[in-house]
Design goal:
There is one protein chain. Helix content is about 20%, strand content about 25%. Helix 1 packs across helix 2 and helix 2 packs antiparallel against helix 4. The chain starts with a strand and ends in a 9-residue tail after the last strand. Strands 1, 2, 3, 4, 5 and 8 form a six-stranded antiparallel sheet that branches. With about 210 residues, it is α+β, with helices and mostly antiparallel strands.
């Protein structure tokens, strides 16, 4: 996770003693403060417009050859789409559930060779749309009665083979040498399984059916 939801997860530790309701209380506080998180996002894949949308068929490549090619490329991913965003929400999943009762990637299939990336972004996304999204994302209620992405949520749902996320670090305090001072930063961190990681560039890619289970 990154953006508001990661701040909710990490910062609400201050009131952990009140139980699970801490997430909801801190979420309302974050909606009131309405921080924006600028960054560049690239991905190779498809944007989902309807929950019944079928992905374009991709011919399976030889797994061993793909692994060797990726080693030669030293982990570089090949992106086909790029955009700079003002994020309110960003998550990457390979399963439907990110936690108990949190079905935030309802179209995810662990064996479809894609990561499910959910984004809420936009320069003009205000508190109302952020609040609507926060009230719906835990149950993955992103779709209207026709199965289309709900336009009122100002969000996008992507199926990606690979991606790169590069947060804009201009909002970070700086050390004397001009480098980002992560130690003094209090918000905008990644939350990975509840753990805190600095908002540096991150890349991800899938190797479909790369692990044989017998």
């Amino acid at each position: 996770f990154w953006a508001i939801v990661s701040d909710v997860d990490l910062e609400s530790e201050k009131i952990r003693w009140i139980g699970e309701i801490r997430f909801h209380l801190w979420a309302f506080w974050m909606v009131f403060k309405l921080r924006k998180y600028r960054g560049t996002f690239k991905y190779c894949g498809e944007e989902i417009k309807n929950k019944d949308q079928q992905l374009n068929s991709v011919q399976e490549e030889d797994i061993s050859r793909r692994i060797e090619e990726e080693k030669k490329e030293e982990g570089e991913v090949q992106e086909t789409q790029e955009k700079e965003y003002d994020f309110s929400y960003f998550s990457v999943n390979n399963t439907k559930f990110a936690g108990a009762g949190m079905n935030n990637a309802p179209l995810s299939k662990i064996d479809d060779g894609h990561m499910d990336i959910v984004i809420q972004e936009g320069d003009e996304v205000g508190r109302t749309k952020v609040l609507k999204f926060m009230l719906n994302f835990e149950e993955g209620q992103y779709f209207d009665n026709n199965g289309d992405i709900n336009s009122r949520l100002a969000m996008s749902y992507k199926k990606a083979k690979n991606f790169t996320l590069k947060p804009d670090l201009d909002f970070l305090p700086q050390n004397e040498d001009g480098s980002p001072d992560f130690d003094s930063q209090t918000f905008g961190w990644y939350s990975i399984d509840g753990e805190k990681y600095p908002p540096c560039q991150v890349k991800g890619a899938t190797i479909n059916k790369g692990l044989a289970v017998t």
